[in-house]
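Please decode residue identities from the backbone states below.
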């Protein structure tokens, strides 16, 4: 933290000058050993609009922070009286102070990586792709693989008949892979397909789809779902260079998180064969990690069971006092509705040119293998983090959790299902029965009527009941909101605005929405005794906003400026110099 020594103590500020060195030093030790980033400095924040999220005392004026922890919350007068040491005083000039935002589903490391890959538009003509790839070829002339990102695969297949042949012409001398914009597909040239063993004769790999020409049966070069992971792993093996690259990408992403007032995340990527966990661990060790992270490890449908379980056992990290945990298992049940790969009970109205057995979407795992994984991972202590978009995928995730509950009877695991686009009516009560937490992305794009119309073209009238957040909430289910960055908008403030201004939206009071982005997430991550609200004893994770978002039109909230972010009392973002 920057020096907090200030010369501008108010005249009426008459705390005793006695600095109790003994107790300070012992507290310093505690503060520095645990929680990373817990600063040894103490200060009193005054003249703030403090929104605590604590239902017993929602608003306050002042907060006392000692050794990175909140030790008192209340009125300015009371706290000035209570404080019996000499504290630096930070005057926030009436700004809003809140608990830092918590985002329980995003792809921070990949967001950083995507930013540095050759970036192509989601939808473009053959000419656009040819031109853009041409520019990038120079930049990437030295790398073994050509890597691009950003293209929508369904859109690409409408423009090009043979995407692989198109890439072969542009990049004939080495493997090339272009990742999609949603994390569910990739486009490869022939060398890349061969490098991972994908041939015209080969059947689809477990959990994946190799797109084929419907007449000739030849691979088009587009692959879906888990079939892309092999290409990604081959293009970015965990060499020292690539782990450095992942680490630097993570640092870029961390900066963006701090700028957005986000102090806790759950990274939903977790592609451990590519050195991603190592990059996070390095950030923690080098003291560059500026969020609390409860991250996931990705469960591959195409790896042997025992080998994968042993990887998960070795990689499990769950010290609640550490900034970094790897205590979630990310399990993809199905794909996405907008690619006709989300698993549905009834067929899609329109889809890709997929074989008839995929007319109701796609599953990553055979259910009998999945339930064994779920039970075993739960026994190892992992919280399960299911990706499920279609009603059939969601139903099968609930079935797997029911099975685990029966044979393990572990209490209070707080497993969750994320995305939840179409939920079968009969499954609604099961969430509460099985104590499953629901995780929605009610982002600006997701709540846009355009999105609904687009999805309607895939699922027909079922689009009327997309993302039933309110229904689940009314059924007593715990609910959190996440961003899914960089597939979606990151800004928590834009998200609040999107939820509150949605026509016939699920929630219209800001307090509830903010709970779903703070304390509810803390509870999901077994951290509600340490974060998620501003209460004595909790860690000083704060965001400071330039205006009071509780007292302004909802359609303006997205323009609010994040002016500072603190993690464990330490300033991680402060362009205005409020804490200088
Ligand atoms: Zn995601």
């Amino acid at each position: 933290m920057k020096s907090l020594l200030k010369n501008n103590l108010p005249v009426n500020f008459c705390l005793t000058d006695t600095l109790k060195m003994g107790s300070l030093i012992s507290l310093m030790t505690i503060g520095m050993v645990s929680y990373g980033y817990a600063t040894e400095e103490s200060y009193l924040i005054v003249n703030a609009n403090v929104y605590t999220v604590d239902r017993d005392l929602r608003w306050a004026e002042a907060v006392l922070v000692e050794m990175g922890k909140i030790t008192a919350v209340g009125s300015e007068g009371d706290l000035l009286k209570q404080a019996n040491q000499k504290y630096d005083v930070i005057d926030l000039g009436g700004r809003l102070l809140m608990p830092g935002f918590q985002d329980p589903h995003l792809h921070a490391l990949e967001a950083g990586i995507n930013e540095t890959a050759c970036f192509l538009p989601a939808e473009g003509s053959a000419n656009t792709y040819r031109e853009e790839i041409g520019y990038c070829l120079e930049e990437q002339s030295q790398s073994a693989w050509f890597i691009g990102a950003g293209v929508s695969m369904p859109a690409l297949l409408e423009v090009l008949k043979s995407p692989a042949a198109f890439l072969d012409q542009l990049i004939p001398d080495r493997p090339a892979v272009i990742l999609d914009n949603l994390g569910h597909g990739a486009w490869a040239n022939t060398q890349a397909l061969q490098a991972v063993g994908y041939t015209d004769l080969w059947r689809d790999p477990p959990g994946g789809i190799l797109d084929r020409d419907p007449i000739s049966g030849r691979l088009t070069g587009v692959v879906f779902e888990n079939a892309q992971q092999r290409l990604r792993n081959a293009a970015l093996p965990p060499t020292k260079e690539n782990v450095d690259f992942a680490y630097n990408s993570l640092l870029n992403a961390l900066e963006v998180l701090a700028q957005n007032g986000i102090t806790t995340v759950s990274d939903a990527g977790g592609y451990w064969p590519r050195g991603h966990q190592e990059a996070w661990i390095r950030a923690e060790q080098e003291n560059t990690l500026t969020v609390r992270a409860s991250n996931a490890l990705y469960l591959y449908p195409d790896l042997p069971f025992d080998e994968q379980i042993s990887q998960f056992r070795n990689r499990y990290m769950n010290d609640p006092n550490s900034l970094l945990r790897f205590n979630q298992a990310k399990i993809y049940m199905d794909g996405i509705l907008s690619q006709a790969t989300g698993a549905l009970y009834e067929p899609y109205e329109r889809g890709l040119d997929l074989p008839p057995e995929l007319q109701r979407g796609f599953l990553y795992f055979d259910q009998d293998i999945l339930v064994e994984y779920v039970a075993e991972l739960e026994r190892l202590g992992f919280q399960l983090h299911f990706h499920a978009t279609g009603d059939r995928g969601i139903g099968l995730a609930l079935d797997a959790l029911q099975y685990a509950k029966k044979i393990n009877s572990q209490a209070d695991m707080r497993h969750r299902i994320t995305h939840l686009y179409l939920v079968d009516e009969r499954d609604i009560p099961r969430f509460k029965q099985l104590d499953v937490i629901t995780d929605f992305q009610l982002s600006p794009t997701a709540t846009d009527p355009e999105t609904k119309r687009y999805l309607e073209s895939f699922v027909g009238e079922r689009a009327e009941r997309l993302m039933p957040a309110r229904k689940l909430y009314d059924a007593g289910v715990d609910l959190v909101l996440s961003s899914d960055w960089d597939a979606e908008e990151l800004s928590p403030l834009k998200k609040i605005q999107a939820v509150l201004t949605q026509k016939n939206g699920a929630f219209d009071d800001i307090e509830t929405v903010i709970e779903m982005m703070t304390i509810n997430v803390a509870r999901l991550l077994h951290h509600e005794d340490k974060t998620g609200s501003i209460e004595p004893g909790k860690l000083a994770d704060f965001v400071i906003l330039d205006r009071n978002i509780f007292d302004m039109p909802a359609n303006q909230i997205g323009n609010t400026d994040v002016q500072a972010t603190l993690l464990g009392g330490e300033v991680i973002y402060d362009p205005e110099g409020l804490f200088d």
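Observation: The mean pLDDT is 90.
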